[in-house]
Amino acid sequence: xxxxxxxxxxxxxxxxxxxxxxxxxxxxxxxxxxxxxxxxxxxxxxxxxxxxxxxxxxxxxxxxxxxxxxxxxxxxxxxxxxxxxxxxxxxxxxxxxxxxxxxxxxxxxxxxxxxxxxxxxxxxxxxxxxxxxxxxxxxxxxxxxxxxxxxxxxxxxxxxxxxxxxxxxxxxxxxxxxxxxxxxxxxxxxxxxxxxxxxxxxxxxxxxxxxxxxxxxxxxxxxxxxxxxxxxxxxxxxxxxxxxxxxxxxxxxxxxxxxxxxxxxxxxxxxxxxxxxxxxxxxxxxxxxxxxxxxxxxxxxxxxxxxxxxxxxxxxxxxxxxxxxxxxxxxxxxxxxxxxxxxxxxxxxxxxxxxxxxxxxxxxxxxxxxxxxxxxxxxxxxxxxxxxxxxxxxxxxxxxxxxxxxxxxxxxxxxxxxxxxxxxxxxxxxxxxxxxxxxxxxxxxxxxxxxxxxxxxxxxxxxxxxxxxxxxxxxxxxxxxxxxxxxxxxxxxxxxxxxxxxxxxxxxxxxxxxxxxxxxxxxxxxxxxxxxxxxxxxxxxxxxxxxxxxxxxxxxxxxxxxxxxxxxxxxxxxxxxxxxxxxxxxxxxxxxxxxxxxxxxxxxxxxxxxxxxxxxxxxxxxxxxxxxxxxxxxxxxxxxxxxxxxxxxxxxxxxxxxxxxxxxxxxxxxxxxxxxxxxxxxxxxxxxxxxxxxxxxxxxxxxxxxxxxxxxxxxxxxxxxxxxxxxxxxxxxxxxxxxxxxxxxxxxxxxxxxxxxxxxxxxxxxxxxxxxxxxxxxxxxxxxxxxxxxxxxxxxxxxxxxxxxxxxxxxxxxxxxxxxxxxxxxxxxxxxxxxxxxxxxxxxxxxxxxxxxxxxxx
Amino acid sequence: xxxxxxxxxxxxxxxxxxxxxxxxxxxxxxxxxxxxxxxxxxxxxxxxxxxxxxxxxxxxxxxxxxxxxxxxxxxxxxxxxxxxxxxxxxxxxxxxxxxxxxxxxxxxxxxxxxxxxxxxxxxxxxxxxxxxxxxxxxxxxxxxxxxxxxxxxxxx
Lengths: 858, 156
Prior knowledge:
The structure holds two protein chains of two kinds. By secondary structure, chain A is α+β, with helices and mostly antiparallel strands. In chain A, 45% of the residues lie in helices and 24% in strands. In chain A, the strands form seven sheets. Chain A has a five-stranded antiparallel sheet with strand order 4-3-7-6-5. Chain B is of the alpha/beta class. Helix content of chain B is 38%, strand content 13%. Chain B has five helices and five strands; from the N terminus they run βαβαβαβαβα. In chain B, α1 (15-27) packs across α5 (124-141) and α3 (76-85) runs parallel beside α4 (103-112). In chain B, 38% of the residues are buried. The A-B interface holds A 624, 627-629, 631-636, 638-643, 664, 667-668, 670-671, 674 and B 14, 16-17, 19-20, 23, 69-70, 98-102, 120-125, 127.
């Protein structure tokens, strides 16, 4: 066995030596051919490099001073030669590297790559990136380039390694920076892209990409607008022409407003590009539009409200105004605002003083102000302004500016003033109304009205004049108040159509319409009195006529201290005042007249009453004497004729007796007649004394009284329930007495008299009736029934004076009633009568208490 | 000289009435002694025992006065008043006998204290009867007061 081993060992050793020899031969050959520049020999001191000291020395220096690592490699990849740089790159001494395979240079993961590269390097120039592995384990990024060393004897590879670490670092930095920029670009809300003249998108940030999608390979017009051709006029490409930045806006199909900024951009390689930034300004524009709108609305509102705004720099006094302020003051808006120092002329002195004082105060205290100021416009007219101001503090808290608003309140103030005036006038009118109602004295009333007009309504002077009907038709002053100073008495106003009658007073009285003089100073109507009027401060006047239905009887004139004091409303009120006055005066006069008439009437009434009373008295006296004086002779006639018949009767012939009898009867009748007549007249004069009276009770009384008449007769009394009536019992008793007596009288021929007394309703009214079954009468003569002395029958058939029914009628009439009769010859008669009070008292007959009251007046 | 005692003083101015009244009184034999005064003055003079009747004795007053109202000179009511006002004559019954039935006369008369008021009936029979009744009542039926003994008048 040991021999085999030995043999094998000896064989391998020989092989090895052979290889070495070949190698050395090769080397030698290489050296000889010049293909090798150096030899690395391992000596006792290590490996040593032997180079040919040839004119290659510059190349040597060159090689050594290269910043790249260089090496020559044999075709199998062995490092034949390397420079110091290379060795440094891997952190190995050169000697170590000589003869080592090139793959020791690289990190393990790159070995393959290197091999491939070397393979390529045999033929071509090639390059690859890889990493060298250093001694200390770190890696070094390199770019290795290989080139074939063309030689018949020893082809090899030339290897150059460039340290990439810097570059890599730089690259990394750049990459990082680029990354950063890209992030920035991507993070921007704007869409940014770079366009090439060929409509390609060289670069697009994230925003762009999100909107349009990946632009890779697509033309800008394709994906932006969906077009297949470039736009006819491309805004973006405009910049290429002008070389100037250019921005423009477009509304896209989906209604977004895009603002595009284009600028020329030179790429790193100098090629012209377009840098475009697109901003979606839709909301922006929207907000702008809204702002514009609200600003416009605000402006409009301000304009409508006539509200202006202003601001002022306190130190310089510079002022800015909105348009309304100019308008308020009648100034030209194109002119600068009037500086504070010059503003004195746009306010009245009082207002200016107030404003300056207030501003000073506000600047001190910081408290905002609000003032009503009276302005003077450019045309000299006055206006009113409500001004508000507040101070603005700067960052240090100092008040450097004032700002505020101003409102034109001229109209409002005017209205206020008018209202106040109207109020005062109304008040005055109310006082006048009171005076008009209360005063019973005409002159007093006129004075009160004038006083009220002055004191309450606040006018300068007022007077009332009446239109006289004398030759001159003067207007006579009746009352005045205010600053009169003799004006009225010296005015000599007339209402005739003469010079002194053509003033407002004369006109008002003649025409019956109010006459207004808005400006006394310039109205020719007042020429005769102008000087006097102006002297006393009358600047405007109104004259209101005082009228009855047909004509003016006077006028009230009112003077004001300023012109144009009487506007429409004022005039209306004053006209009403004049109407009220006219009415009151007319009423007063009518009242006075009425009173006078009343007095006259009273006088006449008294007179008449006196006459009547005296007539009555005469009548009473008459009937008194009648009752006395007529009876006496009658008595005598009766007496002596009786005596005659008694004393001498037997001696007298029958005829004489008969005569005497007739005389007697005559006297009796006459006596009756006198009594009846007296009664009738007494009833006429008698004042009714009415009380609640029971008719039934009266009838019962009368029946008792008539008992003697009824003696020996068959009488059927049918007495129904009779009501309680308000009446004069004594008189009503007479009514029943009469009627029942008549009933008895005219039923005498009957065997059985039937006499009914009761009530019945006729046409809704209660009626009392007395019915008998006596001889009745012919209705033909019914009209005469109630006449005095009228008789239906012959006296010898039925006695009676003919006064009874007349008396009854009188009594019934006095009670507001009516009496009538219905009869049939030989059948009977019914007498009906009503009493006014019956209507209300158809009820139960009297109670015991009422009976006690009955006929108390009897 | 004392005049005879008088029963009735008739104060009446109308002669016919006087005649008829006297006739009626005498027929009834109610009174014998009747003095007629033709007017109010005479009546008062008689009663007060003055004037032509100064010699009369005041203690002998008539038992009844029939007084008409319508009298010349002094009115009947005035006479009544004087009679009733004076204590000397107050107690003498006075009957107004008159044609009038006027309310006012009635009222006035009674207010003045008349003892009775009668209206003269026109009818003579009634007249006679009335007078009779009056006389009967006042002279017979009615109790007259006992006349006080009066002091003799100066004239007596």
